[in-house]
Amino acid sequence: MKFLVTGAAGFIGSRVAEELALQGHEVVGLDNLNDYYDPNLKLARLDRIQNLLAQHNATSNFRFIKMDLADREGIAELFATEQFQRVIHLAAQAGVRYSIDNPMAYVDSNLVGMMTILEGCRHNKVEHLVYASSSSVYGNQEKVPFSEDDRVDHPISLYAATKKANELMAHTYSHLYKLPTTGLRFFTVYGPWGRPDMAPFKFTKAILEGRTIDVYNYGKLQRDFTYIDDIVEGIVRIQDCSPSSSYAILNIGNNQPVALEDFIEAIEIATAKKAIKNYLPMQAGDVYQTYADTEKLEIICGFKPSTKLSMGMDMFCKWFRSYYK
Length: 325
Description:
With 325 residues, the protein is an alpha/beta fold. The protein is 44% helix and 17% strand. Strand 1 (2-6), helix 1 and strand 2 form a beta-alpha-beta unit. Residues 4-253 form the NAD-dependent epimerase/dehydratase domain.
């Protein structure tokens, strides 16, 4: 198969592109390499893909193109030239708190970007579009676990609002043009090569350096931490599933929320260092808990994430120490 993977220099996108290329597919990776966080980490992920493929004599399976999703003419030309069979759209402006201060970045990446991808898929007969949504669309609802059938009409951050908008845009294109789309609501993805703006990275770095970590809502938060290998396996399985309808939304989470204090303890064990905690009130735009109902994922793909936090954080901390010496 011939794939387009957007966000190919990102945390999840780089791993998905790598896995598909290793399976023998032709993969074109797209990323604008912006400076939301250190571009050197993004470049290192791309280097890792090429090095791994070289070990398997498969370097021809992956090509990288630097392009912004908001480049309407460029994206349209890319689709027309390459004639992708499937698209995995993972590129986005991420981060809940960043959206409070930089809202226009989310309009360009998450709304305009989604539109250029949908148009490319529509006009070039793409077989299946799989795209990243987020558990943040659930907001602060009290019913748990979060089910795909729950109403998600009250996002509490602009980031969440753009992800809900992506789902609505996909629904429209599925309805009007019979484009098969599957939106994936990711639940707190972590692991080696993870994003520096996320808690696993920030907490691990601070603990290893002996610095204080900020613990919001006085530690009374829960997250459904999902290991990167589980996310990648889920995505690769989902893109190969024939959708039962032209539009689907699926949760990908560990189905096992972890208290923030227990998460910090897992880092302490993995690093053999104690955290210095600074307890603070709730942050604007944040949610109290996330908890994925994964029954639909299991039914459709016969798969359920299962990596334990202790194992996942141990792998992350080993990578962190190795990468940052």
